[in-house]
Amino acid sequence: MAFKNPKKTKQLRRELRRNMTETEELLWKRLRNKQLCGLKVRRQYGMGPYVLDFYVPEVYLAIEVDGKIHLKKEQIQRDLNKDTFLENHRVDVIRIKNEEVISDIDRVIDRLENMVYNKLKI
After folding, report:
1. Cα 91 to Cα 54: distance, rounded to the nearest angstrom
2. Helical (H) or strand (E) element with 7
3. Are 26 and 35 in contact (CB under 8 A)?
4. Which of 15, 34, 56, 62 is 20 to 30 Å from 50 at the Cα level?
5. What CATH fold (topology level) applies to the domain 7-121?
6. What torsion, rounded to 10 degrees, do the Cα atoms 92, 97, 103, 109 define?
7. 77-116 pLDDT, tens per residue?
8. Phi, psi of 46 (to 5 degrees)
9. Which residues on adjacent β-strands are paired with residue 95?
10. What is the pLDDT of residue 37?
11. What does the DSSP assignment read for 26-91?
């Protein structure tokens, strides 16, 4: 299986791009067209068996937007497995709650920009 954007997840990735959550759409409007530190951000990006909400390839950063489902025990374990897999492949993960995006998207963007700038300095 290809590691990045494997064929196995292609249909799922297309479906997820067509049916983004409201919160993902809000964040995407602020990330698209190189608005995040001048870097390309990809949405619904496949990595191994997982699909990332957003991915910044230049700095190996996955951005996951978590709704209430991520509070369920089974989902917490799946998220932990996903994060571990990504970290083992040198991809940092930042998880952002839906409420953060809705209540203060500017603060979320500031956090993401700080993280990206710190990674660019390394």
Report:
1. 12
2. none
3. no
4. 34
5. Endonuclease; Chain A (3.40.960)
6. 10
7. 999 999 999 999 999 999 999 999 999 999 999 999 999 9
8. -85, 135
9. 64
10. 96
11. HHHHHHTTTTBTTB--EEEEEETTEEEEEEEGGGTEEEEEE-GGGGSHHHHHHHHHHHHHHHHTT-
Q: Confirm if 111 and 100 have CB atoms less than 8 A apart.
A: no
Radius of gyration of the chain (CA): 14
Domain ranges of the chain: 7-121
- Between helix 22-31 and helix 105-121 the angle, nearest 10°, is 50
State how far the Cα of 111 lies from the Cα of 122, in Å rounded to an integer.
17
Sequence-distant contacts of 102-106: CB under 8 A, at least 24 apart: 102/23, 102/26, 105/26, 105/27, 105/30
Name the DSSP letter for residue 8.
G
